[in-house]
Amino acid sequence: MRAIVDTNLLIAALLWRGLPHRLLEQARGGALTLISSPTLLAELQDVLAREKFSAIFARARLSRELAFEQLQQLIVLVEAPPLAVPVCRDPDDDHVLAAARAANADSIITGDHDLLTLGDFQGIPIRTARQALAILDRSR
Length: 140
Hints:
Largest sheet: 6 strands, mixed
Strand order of the largest sheet: 3-2-1-4-6-5
Mean pLDDT: 94
Low-confidence stretches: none
Strand content: 5-15%
Structural class: alpha/beta
Number of helices: 8
Number of strands: 6
Oligomer: single chain
């Protein structure tokens, strides 16, 4: 599966165990190809730099830079031209849709309700981590 995984799920995958972390394991194992864009990676780096994550990184004995570099190694980067017409209620989410379209992704995986309420975008299903993992588990 080739998928855009939104920033919040990637942060959760790096910092905690649970469904988002299982997505990261699927990517490491080759069952899931993580796709991103320069805009999404910049957003990820900005979020990782937030002070609220300092203690979590310290407890895990992991640097933000190393976490970002390790994740970057799993990502296929695409250039994503902006959408001509806004689609999401939150216009900041349109870059997720633009990246999925540019990459011809199989899925968008997110916990964002504004994206999930769309259901799909130009034939690309928008799924939760649980839904995506169920599909990946069935395809083994």
